[in-house]
Amino acid sequence: MTSPQTPGPLPEADLTGVLDGSLPPGLYRWRPAAGDPGPSLGPEEAGWDSRAVDLGGVGDGDGFVTRCADGLGFPERFGRDWDGLADALTDLGWTDPPEHGRLLLVRGWDAFAQSAPADAATAADVLSAAVSYWAGRAAPMTVLLS
């Protein structure tokens, strides 16, 4: 694992653009506007495997990795560390392949990043590497940090 770097500002995402493919797969910030009804179809109806990780109350890297394992339903063999997370995000053979892609929504990112900036930088590196890995494949991955 490389040493974490403080990530620069991430581009903002529009969920409709993610689902209809007009926004390329990537690691994005997502801040839905109050009262925004969202896209006309949800991720699953649009052919995406959509999963969420809730970081509420998480203040360190171990908590981040554990929440990912729980929220994403990693198999028992998952190594509960940064390298294990990177491996699990690039070896998704235990999931059914989606029609269009994989969408990961990470809720509570701002509070996590504020309480554990070095761990958040490492998490962003791991997530970005997973997005890059899946980018050229039939079912790319997009991660939304909310």
TrEMBL record:
It comes from Streptomyces chumphonensis. Residues 26-49 are annotated as: Disordered. InterPro entries: Barstar, Barstar-like_sf. Residues 51-145 form the Barstar (barnase inhibitor) domain. This is Barstar family protein. Belongs to the barstar family.
